[in-house]
Specification:
Blueprint: H1 2-38, H2 40-68, H3 74-86
Length: about 100
């Protein structure tokens, strides 16, 4: 109950401060976030992290499938296959490229 009250109080405080800051501050934060997201270094880092995550997921899948054998659900197998096929494409879900 204490955590719920703290969450609601934080939500209310954020709303009040947000409405006082107004639209101008919101637009300023939005512009800053867009500039950071479009920075080539940030995009490359995000793509590298995504690629390493896909590789790690593939290795983890193989390690688990060796231990459990054919008990891996088909939905998991299909998802891993689709991720492997997508690795060669030029874009990911966020619109970043592999450049």
């Amino acid at each position: 109950m204490r955590y719920r009250l703290a969450f609601i109080a934080g939500l209310a405080l954020g709303y009040v401060l947000g409405t006082r800051a107004g639209r101008e501050r919101y637009e300023q934060l939005k512009k800053s976030a867009r500039q950071v997201a479009q920075n080539p270094a940030v995009r490359n880092t995000a793509e590298t992290a995504a690629q390493q995550g896909r590789e790690f997921a593939g290795k983890a899948y193989h390690a688990v499938s060796e231990k459990v054998g054919d008990h891996v659900p088909d939905s998991v197998s299909q998802r891993v296959r689709s991720l492997r096929e997508r690795t060669g494409t030029g874009e990911d879900d966020w619109g970043t490229s592999n450049t």
